[in-house]
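FORM 7B: Structural annotation worksheet

SECTION A. Query
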Amino acid sequence: MDRLFVYGTLRRGCRAHSMLADVAREIVTAETPGQLYALPEGYPAFLRGTGVVVGDLVSVRSSRVAALLRELDRFEGYFGPGLSANIYTRETLPVTVRETGATREAHVYIYANAARARTLGRRLDTGDWVGSRGAAAAGS
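SECTION B. Predicted structure
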């Protein structure tokens, strides 16, 4: 699969977006069901749940997918399926393109400690990191 849904510091205009600059074929605004929390460390936590999370659907050049996922796994603290050391897990979810309504499967990083996010984080009711004060407070 050559698509990635990003909702936080990897989005356009945010501090880590440069990781995607050379590998993206296309980037469009999209959304998927879930909840978004602003963590005290200055980045967001995506959790499964009711609500909508807004982000960018990034189509990646096929030749770069494996290397990008390895790099992002390190960046997101994902060490493999089911490992207790994971900060995030990487899963495949359906994502809806806002402009067309088309649904696409994409890799999504989901925060592994939902209880911590709900306890220490601030829920972003809009589901939009860029459009919220979460991004501004984090310097994204």
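SECTION C. Observations
The chain has one domain: 3-132. DSSP finds four helices and six strands in the chain.

SECTION D. Sign-off
Analyst initials: ____
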